[in-house]
Amino acid sequence: MRIVLCLAIGLAFAGATLAANTPAQLKDIQKVADDFFKAAVDNDFDAFKDLADAKRLAEYAANEINCPLANWWESARKDVDKESAKWEFVKVKSNMPTNVELVYTKTTSAGASQVSIFLTKEGEKWLVDAAGGAF
């Protein structure tokens, strides 16, 4: 009986740890992605960079010219300047406790397409981990 009780308690804690993010949390996560795109539209590289995760910042520190963050920025600015790009939230595609994939519609003068942005949780903050397909 004790073993069953211990297993039940263990599973309850595991379930709480592995639970998906709530709708309220997803709104906060979406705001990070929205702010990331807004920084690109507003031509604010510092704000853009501040929303990247530690892995991307380390890559940027090692090589500011040829790294994902610099490539995202260059692509985003090209999309905004030449194609009048805008991004609009569509849905949550993947909702894991520390990783979330959001889908956006990117509209440019050439048309619209759906793109993904991936966010990861670092401590209590959600930050952009991958956005290459979004630009």
Explain this structure to me?
This protein is an alpha+beta fold and 135 residues long. The protein has a single domain (22-134), classed as Nuclear Transport Factor 2, Chain: A, CATH 3.10.450.50. Helices cover 50% and strands 28% of the residues. A four-stranded antiparallel beta sheet has the order 1-2-3-4. The N and C termini lie far apart (56 Å).
Helix and strand topology:
Layout: H1 2-18, H2 23-41, H3 45-50, H4 54-62, H5 68-83, E1 86-95, E2 99-108, E3 111-122, E4 125-130
Antiparallel strand pairs: 1-2, 2-3, 3-4
Quote the CATH topology: Nuclear Transport Factor 2, Chain: A
Q: Helical percent range?
A: 40-55%
The H-and-E topology, N to C, reads as HHHHHEEEE
Q: Helix- and strand-based class? A: alpha+beta
Count of extended strands = 4
Short summary of the structure?
The chain is α+β, with helices and mostly antiparallel strands and 135 residues long. It is 50% helix and 28% strand.
List keywords for this structure.
5 helices; single chain; Nuclear Transport Factor 2, Chain: A
